[in-house]
Design brief:
One of its GO terms (molecular function) is hydroxycinnamoyltransferase activity. The protein has about 290 residues and is an alpha/beta fold. It contains eleven helices and eight strands. The relative contact order is 0.22.
Length: about 290
């Protein structure tokens, strides 16, 4: 399915609908809704709520990219690895946080902060260089309605992604504490409101109409794919589907898996030049050993 038609959550709804029909349901349990007007540009548009978060991506990166090894390293020489985070690993990471923050943050917020810090350190960016964490999330359903006031029906199959964006200099990010990074990620997610989502739509449409594009220099995307598809019954018992995703250069996907003991875990994909991957793996290992690195 083309990403212009639907996002990953919309694709999940489509696959689940097939499973429902295969199991004898007269219609999908989550009925599809169109309601495209919910995420159409408004008249008149208002970009005020979203513009501050997107401004660095509109203005362009902090450099020409000549100092970014992610842009100067040939793609076919980079390496891909997956890092496993199960119950024990998450508990180890949480012990780096103050008690109040450990109770407050989600596993996704914590992992996003850890991966962003370790990846930035591994790429040896100059301290003044601006880096950005870009977190797409599903704008559908009761949870977004309850927590953020965003009203997109559960059965909306098209694109309904909301974007949390966090900016920092490489020096601030790597020189501070993990707790501070988690704090700013949590605070940024709290700014997700219905007005922010609608303002984002207005802004992106406005940029497209003017022939402008977002500049993803120094951007790192962490996408939570742990709720995509999963275990489905197509009439022959439970089957595990949808576990794998392609690995783009600037993104990490978190997917569900099982560790060596058969326990639930999350696998985080990572694509880096070989020297950066070695540094990244070392920092992740040190974080899990509860050292002072973070």
């Amino acid at each position: 399915m083309n990403h212009c038609i639907a996002d990953g959550f919309g694709l999940t709804l489509f696959v689940k609908a097939i499973a429902d029909l295969a199991c004898g349901e007269p219609r999908p349990l989550a009925l599809p809704v169109w309601e495209r007007h919910l995420l159409m540009v408004r008249a008149p548009p208002s970009v005020a709520a979203a513009y501050p978060a997107f401004k660095p991506l509109i203005d362009g990166g902090a450099s020409s990219g000549d100092d970014d090894v992610m842009l100067t390293t040939p793609l076919d020489t980079m390496v891909t690895r997956h890092f496993l985070f199960g119950r024990r690993e998450m508990a180890a990471l949480r012990r780096h946080l103050p008690a109040h923050l450990s109770r407050r943050c989600t596993d996704f917020e914590l992992l996003a902060a850890v991966l962003w810090r370790c990846r930035t350190a591994a790429l040896f960016y100059a301290p003044h260089r601006q880096v950005c964490l870009y977190l797409p999330s599903n704008a559908r359903g009761r949870r977004m309605r309850r927590r953020h006031g965003v009203h997109v029906p559960e059965g909306y199959y098209s694109n309904a992604l909301a974007y949390t964006i966090v900016h920092a200099s490489a020096g601030e990010l790597c020189g501070g504490t993990l707790g501070h990074t988690v704090e700013v990620v949590c605070e940024a997610k709290l700014r997700m409101t219905e007005e922010y989502v609608r303002s984002t739509v207005d802004l992106l449409v406005s940029l497209r109409q003017r022939g402008r594009a977002l500049v993803f220099d120094g951007v790192f995307v962490v996408s939570d794919a742990t709720r995509l598809v999963g275990e489905l019954d197509f009439g022959r018992g439970g089957e595990w589907v949808g576990a794998g995703v392609a690995q783009p250069m600037r993104a990490t996907f978190l997917v569900r898996c099982r560790d060596a003991d058969g326990e639930d875990a999350v696998a985080a994909s990572m694509l880096l030049p070989p020297p950066a991957m070695d540094k990244f793996a070392e920092d992740i290992a040190e974080a899990l050993l509860i050292t002072s690195r973070l």
